[in-house]
Amino acid sequence: MKPPLIIVAGIVGVGVMALANGHYINVPSILSNITAIAQQGNALQGNAQPVAATQAAAQTNPPAPTSTAPSPKVDETALRYFASKGDTKRLEAEIARLKALYPDWTPPEDPLAARPQGDPQLDQMWKLYSEGKLAEVRKAIADRQATQPDWQPPSDLLDRLAVAEAREQLVNASDVKQYDAVIRIGSANASLLTCGDVDVLWRVAEAFARTKREDRARDAYLYILRNCAKPEERVATIQKALPLLSRQNLDQLLATEQKTADGKGEFAAIRGDIARQSLANADTDPKLVIADADLAAVQALANDGGLASDDLLLGWYYVRRDNPQSAESWFRKARQKENSAKASQGLALALINQSRPAEAEDILYQWRDADDDVRKVYLAAVANLLAITPPPPLAAPVLQRMVQEVYAAKDAGSAQQLGWYADALNQPQTAAQWFKLALDWKPDDEPSAYGLALTRWKIGDKAGVREIQAQWAGRSERIPTVGERSIQTTVVGRGRSGPRQRAPAAQTDDQTDAGAGKVRRSAGRARQQSSGCSSSVDPVTLSPEAALSRGWCLMQANRPVEAAAAFDVALHGRGKTHADAAYGQSLAYLAAGLPDMAAVSAAKAPMDADRSIEIRTALLESQAANAFDQGRYVETIMALDERSHIAPERTGLMVLRGYAYLKLRRFDDAEQIFRAAAGTGSHDALKGLNDVKMARELKG
């Protein structure tokens, strides 16, 4: 039995086949992997065997005695041509190739010293070959054979031409991502798979990885690291494997690390890249567990290296793991180093996740058009900002730019939130327009349909309400109920609650006492007599009826916060108990200065007309006062206008309206209101007239 031979493209090898840069290359070991894959795909029916099998065969059957056959003639044409052109790289590769083919051959000390008589046409073919003009070489051969039928090109040229054409095909297949073709061509051309052309080995390894044969890819990379000696190629091999191999397989590659002259590991410079890749993988898979060492390595790189990309990696890592505080810290560091769209996008996400959408909107506005992902995050910041309850005061330029961006993007979610925001400011007509736009952009958006029905009901458009109810019949439980409740507010539609923060008051005594006085009088009329609420009792231990009685008692004692808790227990009752509890809790929250929560309570049960008007009037008064306190004078006037439709305007509210006009520099309107109020003997109205006079003088 003879040792197996590998015959590819005219090259014969037994065991160790090639020599490049002074190092023997074990080609069959890598070929065994490639051939096995090719055989699985019926693409190659070769007889390449692993080195282990070759060695075993050699041990079982010792080689026959050497013969005294004459040494074969070595074609040194290419060698001498490359030497004549000073092409050192190709000269060395040719020497390595000839040594692999003819082990007993000794390269000439001076390839130019004994140069045989030249063949100009053949020299031109070699020149074309060296320039990579393979098709022109083929044409030159065909042309010469047409004129000289007996002439045969050197087998060396044909072999090299075939290998170069195969390499070109492999590279082209790799470039267009035809990875199966890469493997097939590589398995059929063993002479390509040497350290003399490590780029081909890299491409074959990548092809294995891209076709989900990672173990084969690992073996290809290991072949390079175990057989190729150039330091830059070894480092590049690890770098190319980074995005393609799992950490377990990468560790096997790193185990081949060699020491440099200064005693450091040759892969030390890229271990940071490996840690970075771990975090990048974690970005796409939130469940992926990252080694503490990798996390610490990237943190050290971010702190010491100064690259914003490292801070971004850490920021996205923490965002994906619901740690917005840490994410914010790293994104801010990234923005300090380089204020980019991605850094701002990440920071905005971290802020949104911490319920700080106003900061997110402000940070991301300048980058809103960077790409679609950034725009989506910006619109999310807008929607979250508008969804805050109570609605935050927004500067006119900020609100205007948000409106413009929502309209330009046709974003239904943000349009819906603009609807609720306008409704919270008692602008039902504007709110209805936004809800209608949201429905136009997203016809199946039930919350927007509900908001549109609600605002149409508020402005008295009963036909419009019926139209929405007909369209959503059977698709929504709450839209058919619009109009059945006595009070509908922004908070009802949103399902949110929370106290509105009041700014320092700038109002008359009449205004200050109006809301609380109204609530106390109402409580006096509606409360049920009770005694014994001076002691502390947990209302949860009471029955709904007893809790209701205690709530009225606490209201009489001017303890509205405790009363609200008692009424909350009473809401578990039925019928009249439930309705009275909702009414009482509304009054309690109004007395406590929490109008938004009062609105929520008012919607928990139907109320009769008197109660409905009473609560609605108090809510609008509170809305007007809050708007004035926060410098939103147009909204103050709008709230007072809406209130005037359901109840006469008292003197204190007239004074408030006059000062709103004055702040808006509508002097004529302010003077008219103050004169009307002054006719009742109001000292505050007289003071307002004087303030108008002084403001006009300052203007002049």
From TrEMBL:
Ranges of Low complexity compositional bias?
Answer: 53-72, 505-517
Ranges where the record places region Disordered: 53-73, 479-540
Top-level taxon of origin: Bacteria
Pfam families hit by this protein: TPR_16 (PF13432)
What is the name of this protein? Cellulose synthase
Organism of this sequence: Mesorhizobium erdmanii
